[in-house]
Amino acid sequence: MTAKKYSTYEAKSVKPYSLCKTEGRGWFAFILFFFSPVFAISQSTNATLNEDYYHWIDRYEIKAGKVAPEIFTSVKPYKRVAIVAFVDSLATRYQVFTSRADQFNAEYLRNDSWEWSRATTNESKKPFLKHFYRKKSDLAYVDIPDFDLHVSPVLYAGVGKDSRLGDATFINTRGVEIRGMIDRKIGFYTFLSDNQSILPSYVQDQVSQNPVVPHEGFWKTFKTNGVDFFQARAYIDFNVSKHVYMQFGHDRTFIGNGYRSLIFSDYAPPALFLRTNVKVWKINYLFQLNRVAADNKNIAIGSSGSRRYPEKFMAFHHASINIGKKFNLGVFESVVFSPKDTINGNSFELNYLNPVIFYRAIEQQFGSSDNAIVGLDFKWNVAKRISFYGQLVIDEFLLKEVKAGNGWWANKVALQGGMKY
After folding, report:
1. pLDDT at 94
2. For residue 83, is it left (φ>0), alpha (ψ between -120 and 50) or beta?
3. The whole model's pTM is what?
4. Which of 24, 156, 333, 335 has the fewest Cβ atoms nearer than 10 Å?
């Protein structure tokens, strides 16, 4: 667990996101109804964002030496059906699962989404009490044509030592994870957990400066130097067509190919979102609308319910294309806005709901003070075992001020580059 500085979208509140009681809830409901499909086809929930899990997928794409057409790695999380198609494709076309460890990982990925892979290796030889863990990956499941259900407990405990702390570090998590499909058209996912932890000293230092526990929303103190928090993530998922799917819920997003993202923070807690994704030919296009908690330094930790926390919205577009067999280029834009600020006067800008418009033009047309950001990312699988990546973010860029060299406050640029081996 690491700490880093806040980006534009990182929540600085200590309360989890909730549905907006006024503009937010109304417009999300309107959008969901307006774009809801008349017909749907088989769909899939996401594989939960996890560093180790997603590292395996990066590893095998790099070992293949080509960008994967099944998965656009700059947009995370990935859908389970796409992961299975990716693993099956690598097993058929490329010799990447050469070691015993790689073969184990490939089998794990297929077993974890067995409703799509139908992996026979996921069958338990000795189920617990004959009814539980008949599949290695699920405590209990239902697998019939009209209904698919997977239920698993979440249990995690860890203990460590920090030379700067008198007490041992630890984490204790208990919860449940549920996912499934109805008629193979509507998917659903939920995750609930209760957690207590004593964080490492370098994380405690960051929390003391900015009262946010990494990845979490509302929290309270546990004993003298620990934290106690409840985590909830959930969404529904449906396909509009073979190449278009939508999701609505409360979860995380990650954009880019690096360990960190400059545009969607992995430090912030899950947020309310509406996502539409189009994947066709060599192109992937994402439109997403989020409601997040705004900066809030004047409310004490643990004071949930004393006052509603300030909120803001973010609309985001990301388009990426595979160029040749080794290179992927993506461009994106976003706008952060609050209908309740003094300039917008409680007016929700409907143009931001347009999935293909240029946000900066809308700002200028209506004299808005909203914050527009543009950028790009790339990935280049140079050869088997080596991949270069990068991300550029530009916020309120004005060329004449850059030439003046006076360090104008509104010109903000972030650049990330790296290599995976």
Report:
1. 87
2. alpha
3. 0.85
4. 156
